[in-house]
Amino acid sequence: MALDPADQHLRHVEKDVLIPKKMREKARERCSEQIQDFTKCCKDSGLLMVIKCRKENSALKECLTAYYTDPAFYEECKMEYLKEREEFRRTGIPAKKRLQKLPTSM
Fold first, then answer.
1. Of 12, 40, 92, 95, which is most buried with the most CB atoms under 10 A?
2. Lowest mean pLDDT: which of 1-5, 20-24, 60-64?
3. Could you tell me which of 55, 69, 61, 73 has the C-alpha nearest to residue 31?
4. Any one cellular component term from GO for this entry (predicted)?
């Protein structure tokens, strides 16, 4: 049975695992400044990082949580996922492999 590339129905694993994974990846990109600040603080603080980096940790959690709880961000990630899935169903080539197959000589 061939799957319709344009089918918008989501399986539970897509709703509960794959789309949230995409949300985490994109949120990390968008919160990269907070991640860098927290990482730097941890490196500079050593064993005292739990105490010294509370402000940076709170800022990072706040940034990530804002994305995780934003319905518009969920929709954006869902549409991106559906687009990738549609392309995979049409071509049989996963997005990661498709990106690697671009010509390297320019």
1. 95
2. 1-5
3. 61
4. mitochondrion
Please state the length of the chain: 106
Predicted local confidence at residue 90, as pLDDT: 87
The yes-or-no verdict on residue 96 having pLDDT over 90 is no
Q: Quick one: which of 95, 84, 99, 97 has its CA closest to 5?
A: 84
CA gap 4, 17 in Å, rounded: 21
pTM listed for this prediction:
0.77
| 82, 85, 86, 89 alpha-carbon torsion, rounded to 10° | -160
